[in-house]
Design a protein that fits this description.
By secondary structure, the protein is of the alpha/beta class. The chain has one domain: Alpha/Beta hydrolase fold, catalytic domain (Rossmann fold), CATH 3.40.50. The protein has 6 helices and 11 strands. The strands form 3 sheets. It has a 7-stranded mixed beta sheet with strand order 1-3-2-8-9-10-11, with helices on both faces. Helix 5 links the parallel strand 10 and strand 11. The two termini are about 15 Å apart. GO terms for molecular function: carboxylic ester hydrolase activity; palmitoyl-(protein) hydrolase activity. It comes from Plectosphaerella cucumerina. This is Phospholipase/Carboxylesterase superfamily protein. Belongs to the AB hydrolase superfamily. AB hydrolase 2 family.
Length: about 260
């Protein structure tokens, strides 16, 4: 069916199991693309909703989504009974695992629940199935763990909807799906979201990898056809803090919005 501008009612079936905020372009009737924004480990959708409004991308509906699971209070330094009510600390993983080599949280805890929520329900069921859009109308922006999820979703789509989970090399692939573009700030591509077919083709979604470790950036280049790597003057991984840091992100969005798909 021909695409139409989404309405609040189109997203209602996603609630309450998925929490998100819609930031519409002005006027909403001129919506031509969608940007899904995914926060980092231990954060929520609220700060990135302000970020979406500040970007003010023309014709872009921004959807900032809350992580699928709350962080345990113990990881936040609280006893369960002392945790503040309504604490806004969430994550995207299926589990919270400690990497024995680093004694830090495993950056690849599995993302099946998040993939179902974002790719299957929000993108395929709602934007594509209900509103007639294509995945090529959708961009993803993620920070930290949210960036990993964004890259992983784009990676897992390359073999087509029916064979994302297939492990046999002789499986018949359907037409590859692509997003309009993906930006990841500091979030590496999870190996658990790379299709296991040995003869897999590279993902065609264009990627902007920001503040990523060199080895992580090289792995993204191995799995995606078109990757631009950006390093800021400072070393730490954080949201952009000035014009110089934000400029390559806005340039990437502009190029994708002007690309036609």
């Amino acid at each position: 069916m021909p695409p139409r501008v989404p309405t609040e009612a189109d997203f209602a079936p996603l609630r309450p199991s998925l929490t998100f905020t819609l930031t519409w372009p002005k006027p909403a009737e001129l919506t031509t693309s969608v940007l899904i924004i995914l926060h980092g480990l231990g954060d929520s959708e609220a700060p990135l909703t302000q970020f979406a409004a500040a970007m003010n991308l023309p014709g872009v509906l921004c959807i900032t989504v809350r992580g699928v699971s709350p962080l345990p209070s113990a990881l936040l330094g609280f006893d369960a009974e002392d945790a503040p009510p309504g604490a806004a600390h969430f994550h995207w993983g299926d589990d919270l695992k400690i990497d024995p080599s680093s004694e830090e949280l495993d950056p690849d805890p599995g993302f099946n629940a998040a993939r179902t929520a974002i790719l299957d329900r929000l993108v395929r069921d709602t934007l594509v199935g209900r509103c007639g859009w294509s995945t090529k109308d959708v961009m993803l922006f993620g920070f930290g763990q949210g960036g990993s999820l964004a890259l992983g979703l784009a990676s897992s789509m390359r073999l087509g909807k029916k064979v994302e989970e297939v492990t046999s090399d002789d499986a018949t692939a359907t037409e590859a799906e692509t997003f309009k573009g993906v930006v990841s700030i500091g979030g590496p591509l999870p190996r658990s979201m790379v299709p296991s077919l040995s003869a897999r083709r590279k993902a065609e979604t264009k990627v902007l990898a920001v503040q990523m470790e060199d080895d992580d950036a090289e792995f993204v280049k191995e799995e995606f056809e078109d990757v631009r790597v950006v390093k800021w003057k400072r070393k730490d991984v954080a949201m952009p803090q000035n014009r110089d840091e934000m400029l390559p992100i806005m340039q990437f969005f502009a190029s994708r919005l002007n690309s036609g798909w």
